[in-house]
Amino acid sequence: MRIRLRYLFAIAAICVSLTAVQAQTNVRIATEGAYPPFNYVDAKGKLGGFDIDIASAICAVAKFNCTFVAQNWDGIVPGLNAEKYDLIFAAMTATIERRKVVAFSNKYASMPFRFVASNRVADAIAAAPGTGIDQLKTALKGKTIGLVTASTADPYVRKKFEGVSTLRSYQKMSDVLQDLKAGRIDAYADGALGIDATFLKTATGKGYRFAGAPLTDPAYFGTGVGAAARLKDTELLAKVNTALAQILADGTYQKIAKKYFDFDIYGQ
């Protein structure tokens, strides 16, 4: 009887150990699903894009069992801290303000930020006096600017253009672009790569282009795109960084990037 009990305790201990290991390796990842080519939902309802491919490669190297969920952008950080998921891969720029509430991995992409407008408005911006943000403010005085709520460009444009232009909020990039095309707004500021891929490089974007200088203030636009984790999850983030370094070194990252971009998305 004692031997049987010892065996039973041993088996129970093994089961508990396996459960603990499984809990450690099951990783839930959130993305927006509305910001191509970084993340989107395809015709079959499946999440895809650069973020998902990079995250999947990292999961394979780190031996994580990863599942992906779509989450609206304005709730993506609160959802992480509420422990609805463990990581965010959603073209999220590591800004100073975001670092106060989440921790970021090393960067896995660089993201320029620009205004996009019709050729007519872009010509007016180019002809306006001044340079940089001052030129944009002069040309867009009294105009309407569209912004995605809680996007990286949102707080910067609000600070610089409050009292200068009318600012209109949207939930998704596609909604802003629809209003830009319809003439309900005059310009839109956001990550240039998403705008370029989904709008400017399509027939819908004919007659529109980037306007003015890139938006580069590091206090607002951070140091690149990274995966976000809860501040306490330092061990998880360390494993992500180790796996990211491996896929950068072995060519996996570059192979994935070439599927989506015809230039160096990683940067210096």
- One letter per element, helices H and strands E, the order comes to HEEEEHEHEHEEHHEHEHEHEHEHH
> What is the end-to-end distance?
67 Å
The residue-averaged pLDDT reads 91
Domains (count): 2
The low-confidence parts are 5-23
* CATH architecture identity of the largest domain: 3-Layer(aba) Sandwich
CATH topology-level fold name of the largest domain: D-Maltodextrin-Binding Protein, domain 2
Look at the structure and give the CATH class of the largest domain.
Alpha Beta
Largest beta-sheet details:
5 strands, mixed
Helix residue percentage: 40-55%
| CA-atom Rg in angstroms | 22 Å
Structural class determined from secondary elements: alpha/beta
Strand order of the biggest β-sheet: 5-1-6-13-7
In percent terms, what proportion of residues is strand? 15-25%
Helix count equals 12
Shape: globular
CATH level-four homologous superfamily name of the largest domain: Periplasmic binding protein-like II
Quantity of strands, as a count:
13
Keywords:
single chain, 268 residues, alpha/beta, D-Maltodextrin-Binding Protein, domain 2, 2 domains, 5-stranded mixed sheet, 13 strands, 45% helix
Description of the molecule:
The chain folds into 2 domains: 2-110 and 224-260, D-Maltodextrin-Binding Protein, domain 2; 113-218, Periplasmic binding protein-like II (D-Maltodextrin-Binding Protein, domain 2), CATH 3.40.190.10. The chain is built from 12 helices and 13 strands. It has helices spanning 2-25, 50-62, 76-81, 96-99, 119-127, 132-139, 153-161, 173-182, 192-200, 218-221, 234-249, 252-260; strands spanning 26-31, 34-35, 39-41, 47-48, 65-70, 87-88, 103-104, 113-118, 144-148, 166-170, 187-191, 208-215, 228-229. The radius of gyration is 22 Å and the shape is globular.
